[in-house]
Amino acid sequence: MVIPAPLHSDKPHLLRLPNWLGDFILALPSVHLYGRWLNQRAPLLIVGPRSLSDLAPILLPGIEFIPAPSFPFALHSILKKKEVSAATLLPNSLRVVLEALPVPYRAGFSRPLGNSLLTENKPRRTSPYGYVHVAQQYLGLLEDLGLPKGKAELSPPPTLPKPHDAPSQPYLTILPGAAYGSAKRWDPNSFASVIRELQKSHSLQPILLGGPGDVEACRAVAQSLGSSITDLSGKTSTLELAHWLAHARLILCHDSGPLAPPNPPGPVPSALLSPSFATKSPAAPASSKPAPSTAAV
Questions:
Q1: Which CATH number is 184's domain given?
Q2: Which pTM value belongs to this model?
Q3: Under 8 Å between Cβ of 11 and 85
Q4: Distance between CA atoms of residues 32 and 59, nearest Å
Q5: How far apart are CA 270 and CA 297, in angstroms?
Q6: What gap in Å lies between CA 14 and CA 179, rounded to an integer?
Q7: pLDDT on residue 181
Q8: Does residue 124 fall inside a structural domain?
Q9: Is residue 181 one of the residues assigned to a domain?
Q10: 112 by DSSP, 3-state: which?
Q11: Range of the domain at 257
Q12: Residue 65 and residue 8: Cα distance in Å, rounded?
């Protein structure tokens, strides 16, 4: 059974995107593929995390973004009102399946506890040579559900203006936090050592960035550095974070979500990843590296 072709222009299709920033970005090629397949025969709706509400219109102009409610059943009234006819779910969670129960056609990856609640389920694609890139896994699901083959490519996003309070001199952004904690985090003293070397060799002003959950990790790096450093952790929205990253000369980070946002046209900042990317991360580099071929890592 494949995704049903649109029969009514007033009955939209829905694509549920991942909650993590990095996976959300890696799902963008799938959004564009789905939109091209619909070819204006029906609207495409996107459901994603509320934390990305300000960034979604920049990355997906012209596509309606619905923030996922904190309670999964709260989405039911919205889906019924919009008369959504088909939903494809990229996150592999039971909660997401429960969100989409009012939709007649529900498809997603095979999952032990959710298959009986899906109209159609497909296994994640694998490779005998290693991991399949996350972006390719999402595209593979759509292909297995009847859509044409797509490419894991990201279109250049609109140019983001430089933050008004950004320093005039070139700056280095440091993102020492990671959602998986110690599985990805580098030692604060090691971060501090690299920052000192980059200040000495390239005269870069260091800027600490991260979400509310990264404040402690940023504070630890600042204490290890022992000198003045701007700490914006927990003080920026996701969109504001993207502005800071877009104009950084260098990004020092883990294998985490902020590495994924595509760079604007023009000079591309490089990303210097901590050794945890190769040695400790539960996600292999081949499966989670940035999708844009323009990114220098």
A1: 3.40.50.2000
A2: 0.82
A3: yes
A4: 11
A5: 6
A6: 27
A7: 60
A8: yes
A9: yes
A10: coil
A11: 171-288
A12: 20
What is the number of structural domains in the chain?
2
Give the span between the Cα atoms of 215 and 158, in whole angstroms: 29
Q: Which residues pair with 64 in a beta bridge?
A: 45
- Range list of β-strands (E), 29-137: 44-48, 64-67, 86-89, 105-109, 120-122
Domain membership of residue 71 (yes or no) is yes
Phi/psi region, residue 130 (left: phi>0; alpha: psi -120 to 50; beta: rest), is: left
Angle at 167 between CA 165 and CA 190, to 5 degrees: 115
Could you list the mean pLDDT of each consecutive 10-residue stretch along the chain, which spans 297 residues? 92 96 91 97 97 91 95 94 98 94 97 90 84 91 97 80 94 85 77 94 95 92 95 93 90 74 49 50 45 47
Spatial neighbors of 129 by CB under 8 A, at least 6 apart, are none
How far apart CA 145 and CA 168 sit, in angstroms, is 50
CA atoms in the 13 A half-sphere facing the CB of 290 = 22
28 lies in a domain? Answer: yes
Cβ neighbours of residue 237 closer than 8 Å, sequence gap 6 or more: 54, 55
- 29 and 92 in a single domain? The answer is yes
